[in-house]
Amino acid sequence: MTDFIGRTIGDFRLDELIDDAGNASVYRGVQVSTNRAVAIKVLKPEAASNPAALQAFTQYAQTAAGMPYPNILPVLSTGQSEGDYYLVTPYESNRSLAQQKSAYNAPAQVSALFKALAPGLEYIYSQGMVHGNLRPSNIILDAQRQPLLSNIGASFQQGQAPTAYTSPEQRQGLVADRRADIFALGVLLYELLANQVPVPGAAMDLHAVRPDLPPQLDQVIQKATAQNPDQRYQTVSEFTGALDLALQPAPHPTPAPVPIPTQTSIQQEVTVEDKGTNWTGILVGALVVIVLCLVLAVVGPRVAEYLNQQETVSQPLPTEPTPAEAPDEDKSVVIIEKPDIDPPEDEPPPAEQPPVEEPPAAEVPPEAPDAPVRDEPPQDVPTPGGEPAPQAGQQLCSSLGLAGGIVLVPGVFAIRHRKRKKARHPSQ
Fold first, then answer.
1. The predicted structure's pLDDT at residue 172
2. How far is residue 19's CA from residue 22's CA, in Å, rounded to a whole number?
3. How does DSSP classify residue 424?
4. In sequence order, which residues have a C-beta less than 8 Å from that of residue 397 and are 6 or more positions away?
5. Strands 8-9 and 12-19: what pairing?
6. In this structure, are residues 236 and 181 in contact, taking their beta carbons and an 8 Å threshold?
């Protein structure tokens, strides 16, 4: 390892080593001509001897220098001095995400961070490049805490120690595309929320570390870090969209309106609740019986009185038996006149017959005049049982009314008891 502290490369003096990971070492320094604080990235000698690493470094220096994009850390200068390749960027003191991870443990803060990174990554992809080395030390936070992408294109090279952010296809030496960056974003999401760096190649179970977080976040991490690139999110916008959806609170179901109980519904509940005894039907029947008894008690005597009067008027008065009628004396007698024939002279005249006395006709007693109708109250007609009809009806109505009352009173108390029980135990 070459120590560049205190050396001057071009117009830049290297004062302090701040990062030595990967193929390059990053120093805090000063631009001598302007006395401006800068960060100088120097390609390590062993990486400079690797054509692939050297090509990636120079390509990044040239591309980043022509990327005036808000979410990309600008490159101020690039060059070579005495065989050392370097590039210069603005220096942000203690502003890398690696030094401020503790400020991004809340899901809302993590989501805002990834949303701010997405436009810069999409711009890099539009330029035909891949970041290839996404990790907290390559994300710089400016004075407004906006993330800036740095070290673009510094892809993992064979011979380097893989990190937790290295995708499976990069470890196999395959060509990496944007899905390698999706893998690194999934690892970064787990690291920020769990506040720990995962073991390279090990499974990440966020729910086991943070059971207080929504389980949907664990699903997002598992899909982003799938071993097969085809099973991951295919774009950064798809990844951030799934992250937002996982952080949305679960919708609370709208409570159904409570129906206002009516007299009919209460009656139905009582009927359904007690199928063995239909108290409602019994009470209705008892009320009908009582009403009928009251009607009969009031109207019955008058009806019976009216019927007795009609029966009394229609019955004939008893009369003495009359003898057989005598033949009427005034009956017509047909008199046949004999013709005037002179009897023969030799015959004697007929002897005169003595008159036959008719028996005297029996005297018919004169008809009695109609008895005057007396304005007296008719007497009750005896019934077969021996009691007057109105009194029997009244006794029957009284008996039925008493029976209806006996049924009505317990029924009312039974219904009131059930209503009280229903109010005390509504779930029963």
1. 87
2. 9
3. H
4. 292, 293, 294, 296, 297, 300
5. antiparallel
6. yes
Contacts of 52 (CB under 8 A, 6+ apart): 157
Q: Which two tokens stand for residue 297?
A: 């008690």
For the stretch 64-100, pLDDT in tens is 777 778 888 888 888 888 888 999 988 876 578 988 8
Q: In terms of pTM, does the model score above 0.90? A: no
- Average pLDDT score over residue span 229-244: 95
Helix (H) / strand (E) element for 283: namely helix 279-314
Q: Which residue has the tokens 């054509």?
A: 51
User: Phi-psi category of 423—alpha, beta or left, where left has phi over 0 and alpha has psi -120 to 50?
Assistant: alpha
Write the Ramachandran bin of 226: left for phi over 0, alpha for psi from -120 to 50, otherwise beta.
beta
Neighbours of 134 (CB within 10 A): 22
Question: Any idea what the Cα angle at residue 14 is, between residues 154 and 89, rounded to 5°?
Answer: 45
Rounded CA separation 194/376 (Å): 114
Confidence (pLDDT) at 274: 47
Alpha-carbon distance of 143 to 125, in angstroms, equals 26
Helix (H, G, I), strand (E, B) or coil at 193: helix
Q: CA 119, CA 149: separation in Å to the nearest integer?
A: 10
Q: Where are the beta strands (DSSP E) in 252-314?
A: none
Whether residue 154 contacts residue 57, with contact meaning beta carbons closer than 8 Å, is answered with: yes
Q: What sign does the dihedral 43-90-35-100 (CA atoms) show?
A: negative
Contacts of 149 (CB under 8 A, 6+ apart): 71, 72, 73, 117, 120, 121, 124, 131, 138, 139, 140
Q: Residue 79 in contact with residue 62, Cβ under 8 Å?
A: no
Residue 24 tokens, joined: 């390059």
Amino acid at 380: D
Say how many residues make up the chain.
428
Beta bridge partners of 96: 140
First to last CA, the chain: 81
CB burial readout 79-114, b (16+ within 10 A) else e = eeeeebbbbbbbbbeebbbeeebeebeebeebbebb
What sections of 85-212 are H helices per DSSP?
A: 107-126, 168-171, 178-194, 206-209
Residue 273 has pLDDT above 50, yes or no: no
